[in-house]
Amino acid sequence: NNIIHDCFTGRQDIYRKKIKMICDNPNLIFKDRPLKMLEAIRLVSELGFKLDDSIYKAIKKSNKALLKVNITDITREMNGIIAGKFAKRGIKLLIKSKLYKRMPLFKTEIKRLYNNYRREDEETFMATSMVKNKEYNERIAMAFNDSKRLEKVVQLALTWPKSNYDVTTLF
Q: CB of 170 within 8 A of CB of 156?
């Protein structure tokens, strides 16, 4: 009597490591809830799964909708993408889908990681994004446990931009 009916073949998708949507039109979902695009890429980054072609195409088509999303929500998803075990895959999807262009604060750093990938933590990624944009962003810093330390690091780098800092000096 404990039979589970898998109407959407979810179990198969898990075995295939494939991220799919149960709706027929991901474009509609992404237009109504654009943060879902980043959530899908975060799952790729965390689990190493692949996006279904329909999701990838919908992200490419709907990426402008991300401009409507709150920067705090984008930051939370970006933290997950950067921290993921398969972060390089997530970064590649952000570039290939052109979704990175809809995140002005992170655009330069996403491109840097794509061109010369090396693992880094979320705090370093956020700090370098702020320094590249020449401003400390309090709304982004709120996503971190030690936002005061992040502020000091960014302000130090902004005050003396010609200095050669490495991660151990700043953090």
A: yes
Decide: pTM greater than 0.90.
Answer: no
pLDDT tens, 59-103? 999 999 999 999 999 999 999 999 999 999 999 999 999 999 999
